[in-house]
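[09:14] KT: can someone run the structure on this one? pasting the chain below
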Amino acid sequence: MNAINFVALFFRALHVLSAITLLGGVIAWRFAAIPAENALAADTRAKLGNATAGAWRPWVLTAITGLIVSGIYNFLHKTGLTSAYHAIFGIKILLALHVFAAVILAARPDNRRRSRQLTGVVVSGIIIVILSAVLRGLTLR
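[09:31] RB: done, structure tokens below
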């Protein structure tokens, strides 16, 4: 394996691992941690929610950074892209911006809209994964 293939493999793996970290963490937070918090008293629920947000914030920022850096590298090293590819890619980027903004907001302390924001991230994240599969198919032809 030459250096170029190793670098491409590294950035592809970074992109996938960052996406898994971000979307998987959000799914676990939204559908496991938040329902579990609802069984607690209001003051304890708020403390636990803020503690979870504080612990999750560095992972969010790291995953977002990994996605941006690897995404730029991966995109710049593709050739022969069609207009259909660019259209779907544009939609994917807009959804990714929504995910980034919503998950950063959800990780803020004392956020009463956290559950709704995380639900939006899950929906957009799943659509992004589907669009990524479509884009992968467009580049294999």
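[09:33] KT: thanks! The chain has one domain: 3-140.
[09:34] RB: yep, looked fine to me
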